[in-house]
Design goal:
single chain; alpha+beta; 8-stranded antiparallel beta sheet; 8 strands; 10% strand
Length: 467
């Protein structure tokens, strides 16, 4: 009797839990085992190349390894994965050339340019004051007050971003209409506005030159579509991870890689911009520093090879790209007649077209997804509420969460590698919060309602000619 009573209680308790119909379990997909080990981009903004190289590596695994069983195509092995550094080496080549030219043209005048830039920024406040004074001197009080306030908001908007920037823009637009309706304008206001326009152009040009000299913006950010085009351009082969490492976590020489690249840039450009009358001792010392910096980032090359490339390509080509090219001795090649990849883009990836993403996952196609990485992953306290970040990861699986009543997606990321989950949890722990969703071995498991809210675009690599 007691046994029967216990069985009844157990049955009632089991019935209280939510059950998942088989129809909801069926869409479950998990492709984590079809990828190589996670790699970490660490402090450098190369998510676009990591995600694209991972998508291409998976495509090669399915289209070539599974069909030929040639171990060279088994991109689940770290050594055969397509190097993310290979994509960025070419992607940023044009920027590096601009940097070299800027150093040659403006490097000797850098202090003078910095001084001119500071003066222009300082003068800008005086010019805005002059605009306001000229406006307030107008006998038309409506015009005077509207234009003075207009100038104040214009000046303030230059120091804001996000929602506040948008709010000021709307108010400026409203004042513009009032000013236009008055039909008023005087010569002094026009002259002050012209001075402001000249000052704006001067600051913009000086800032551009100084950024090129300092190499700012040369390392971070990029477009997945463009780097894909470079990866597959003219079928020049894919550089392998074993020959051009792109993992900060697994390759000791790559700790603090962003700093290493900046150091390499500094020494390479110091060598490339040597004056023609430099002494042999200075030449040798500059070359030695550049070679040592180069070997930190291209460990497969000898000192002789690095020195040879630096000397050979110092005039007409980007030496950093050629250092990367020299590192890739045994590339992965595909036969485009057998199968060739193409990238398809799903614009405006959000809750309205996540059905297409689910369908692609069910068909065995991982999906690259661009989203607001700050809001989707980090605690709210960790970022500026006005800031809008763009991060690219890969959705490699989906499963229905019966407790939540919705699909959740398994997201492969390139920040932190396998240890990324510890960082993720700690980021919430410091605010005495619990992470809002799971993280498994460097993969985020994000509910559909959350991921779709912050998604922007989705990418998939397919085989040309296949539906």
């Amino acid at each position: 009797m007691l046994l029967l009573h216990l069985m009844v209680l157990l049955h009632v308790h089991a019935g209280a839990a939510k059950s998942c119909p088989e129809s909801l379990k069926n869409p479950s997909v998990d492709m984590r085992n079809e990828f190589g080990p996670l790699r970490s981009q660490d402090s450098i903004g190369w998510c676009f190349s990591y995600a694209t190289s991972d998508l291409l590596s998976h495509w090669i695994y399915k289209e070539y390894f599974l069909k030929t069983r040639n171990k060279f195509f088994d991109t689940r092995q770290r050594e055969n994965m397509i190097s993310a550094s290979w994509g960025t080496a070419k992607y940023h080549e044009e920027k590096r050339r601009e940097h070299i030219n800027a150093l040659k043209l403006y490097g000797p005048k850098e202090k003078e340019l910095v001084s001119r830039y500071q003066d222009a920024v300082h003068n800008r406040k005086t010019i805005y004051d002059d605009v306001r004074k000229a406006a307030l001197a107008s006998p038309n009080k409506l015009f005077a007050n509207a234009f003075s306030h207009f100038a104040t908001l214009m000046e303030r908007r230059e120091r804001t971003k996000g929602d506040e920037h948008s709010r000021l823009s709307q108010e400026i637009e409203r004042l513009s209409k009032i000013i236009s309706d008055t039909g008023e304008m005087n010569k002094n206001v026009e002259l002050a506005i012209q001075r402001l326009a000249v000052n704006t152009s001067e600051i913009k040009e000086l800032k551009k030159i100084l950024n090129l000299i300092k190499n700012k913006g040369d390392l971070d950010g990029g477009d997945a579509r463009k780097v894909f085009e470079w990866f597959v351009d003219k079928n020049t082969g894919f550089c392998r991870e074993s020959e051009l490492p792109s993992d900060d976590v697994k390759i000791p020489a790559f700790y603090g890689r962003k700093e290493n690249i900046e150091n390499l840039n500094k020494h390479i450009y110091g060598f490339l911009t040597l004056p023609s009358d430099a002494s042999p001792e200075t030449y040798k010392e500059r070359l030695k520093c550049a070679v040592e910096a180069g070997r930190l980032l291209f460990p497969m090359l000898t000192a002789i090879e690095v020195a040879w490339i630096l000397k050979k390509y110092q005039d007409d080509e980007d030496p950093i790209f050629n250092l990367a090219k020299k590192s890739c001795r045994t590339k992965l090649f595909i036969d485009e007649k057998t199968a060739a990849p193409e990238m398809a883009v799903l614009e405006n990836a959000n809750k309205n077209n996540f059905g297409e993403i689910k369908k692609l996952l069910t068909e065995g196609s991982p999906v690259g997804i661009a989203y607001d990485g700050n809001r989707a992953i980090l605690p709210q306290q960790d970022f500026d509420t006005n800031a809008d970040s763009r991060h690219l990861s890969i959705v490699v699986g989906q499963r229905y969460n019966c407790e939540m009543g919705q699909m959740e997606f398994i997201v492969r990321d390139s920040v932190g590698g396998p240890e990324g989950c510890d960082t993720f949890r700690e980021s919430f722990k410091k605010y005495n919060q619990i992470a809002p969703y799971k993280c498994e071995g460097g993969h985020y498991v994000i509910p559909e309602s959350h991921l779709s809210k912050y998604s922007k675009e989705a990418y998939v690599i397919k085989t040309k000619g296949k539906k």
